[in-house]
């Protein structure tokens, strides 16, 4: 089963549905993979499916037994120069939602969010998820509810000793330049949980993946 292509077909998929087949997906199946059967997924479920003989529709079959390995954590992050890598990693790590946050030191102000959505879809197809994380509209750091969140506390690399793990469903990572002193003060005042990502300085995209690995909702 692992060699069968997986294609995200949207969140309104149901058994027995006949859905329009996007041209690129139909070309991938019939010309690249040279097959018509595939696994369709969306909204947390996976289905056996086939591409019609005319390459124009997907015919959705029965639901498989594969359960969605994704979690329910929202990753809040400052857009960075390599936001595409961050989205890819976070999707593979099982993030349920991705919340861009504009911090004082955010410098990547012209992110192509339509392209980021495509990257998330491709990462979900590759990583055996049954869902694609929702990419929410960007918000300002000052508009966040900081109570109860976890955040990647880079102060650990300068001698502080925050805990390694936190129990929450929301985690925040800063931009390349880190959080500003005012933002650290706001996080501390709100009782946010700073978590250590180690004693080295990580790239922001790697920090996001490590932070997700250190969150538990149980």
Any descriptors?
single chain, 218 residues, alpha/beta, Ribosomal Protein L25, Chain P, Alpha/beta knot, 2 domains, 7-stranded parallel sheet, 5-stranded mixed sheet, 5 helices, 25% helix
Description:
The protein starts with 5 loop residues before the first strand and ends with a strand. The chain is an alpha/beta fold and 218 residues long. It has helices spanning 23-33, 83-92, 113-126, 181-190, 204-213, and strands at 6-8, 18-20, 37-42, 45-51, 57-63, 74-77, 97-102, 134-135, 139-140, 150-152, 166-167, 170-173, 193-195, 215-216. The chain is built from 5 helices and 14 strands. It has 2 domains: 6-63, Hypothetical PUA domain-like, domain 1 (Ribosomal Protein L25, Chain P), CATH 2.40.240.20; 74-216, Alpha/beta knot. The radius of gyration is 20 Å and the shape is elongated.
């Amino acid at each position: 089963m692992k060699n069968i292509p997986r294609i995200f077909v949207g969140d309104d998929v149901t058994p027995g549905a006949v859905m329009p087949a996007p041209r690129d997906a139909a070309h991938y199946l019939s010309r690249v993979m040279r097959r018509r059967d595939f696994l369709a997924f969306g909204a947390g479920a996976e289905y056996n499916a086939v591409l019609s003989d005319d390459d124009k529709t997907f015919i959705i079959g029965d639901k498989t037994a594969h359960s969605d390995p994704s979690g329910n954590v929202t990753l809040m992050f400052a857009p960075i120069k390599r936001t595409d890598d961050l989205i890819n990693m976070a999707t593979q790590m099982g993030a349920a939602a991705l919340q861009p946050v504009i911090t004082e030191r955010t410098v990547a102000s012209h992110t192509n969010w339509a392209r980021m959505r495509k990257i998330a879809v491709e990462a979900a197809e590759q990583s055996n998820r049954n869902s694609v994380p929702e990419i929410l509209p960007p918000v300002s750091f000052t508009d966040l509810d900081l109570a109860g969140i976890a955040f990647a506390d880079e102060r650990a690399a300068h001698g502080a000793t925050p805990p390694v793990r936190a129990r929450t469903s929301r985690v925040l990572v800063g931009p390349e330049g880190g959080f500003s002193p005012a933002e650290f003060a706001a996080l501390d005042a709100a009782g946010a949980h700073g978590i250590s990502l180690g004693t080295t300085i990580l790239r922001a995209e790697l920090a996001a993946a490590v932070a997700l690995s250190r969150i538990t909702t149980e």
